[in-house]
Amino acid sequence: MTSDLWVRRYHPRPDAPVRLVCFPHAGSSAPFYVPVSANAGPGVEVLSLQYPGRQERRNEPLVDDLDTLAAQCTDAVLPWLDRPFALFGHSMGATVAFEVARRLTAKSLEPVHLFVSGRRAPSRNRDEQVHRRDDAGIIAEMKSLSGTDARVFDDEELVRSLLPVVRNDYKAAETYVYTAGEPLHCPITAFTGHDDPKVSVDEADAWREHTTGPTVLHVYDGGHFFLTRHQAAVLAVVSGSLAPTTTG
């Protein structure tokens, strides 16, 4: 595996004392985290994962199994873990980040912090079958979550190219089955929207079950993509949480 296929480093900060590795949500890609990379501050270097089957990797097979995706992401980030690191994921990306954290911890490479956004705790299951809907049903789901620019739906060719990726990622997220195991030991900070139809506040708070370290939950106004509206506030929490690492 070539790590360069997977890892995007939009704003190199080779002297930053900590790296923040970010995992995109279903249907998304690495550039979603460009604003985070740009605004993380000099003490944090942001790496964003590019999953197969999208953008410049569009000719590669999609991965519709979350455990397989997490294993591949784990291998991809290993060359970048020469300093303290934290993980951040939104929606499906939060589950991927969690599974990567588990795999890295098994290799004695535990993150200093896990940040999870817009996703219920792995131990909280829902029977969701969005990936089995027809194309119109998938589009309706995308529109309902307000995470896609409305102008995208006016471009039939673009929508046609996006649908297989979205369906694939929904399948990965919805067929994921949490396997109980040793909890993490790092702190977990969870973020959620008060009106998110995909995550209740209780389901987000349950992330505390997955670590022996401290857990903090931040609830914001908004739905599943509250993150876009509250990006500055979320980034301030992330930067504050990593400050002890960045200042030595």
From TrEMBL:
One of its GO terms (molecular function) is hydrolase activity. Keywords: Hydrolase. Belongs to the thioesterase family. Residues 21-242 form the Thioesterase TesA-like domain. Gene3D superfamilies: alpha/beta hydrolase. SUPFAM superfamilies: alpha/beta-Hydrolases. This is Alpha/beta fold hydrolase. It comes from Dactylosporangium maewongense.
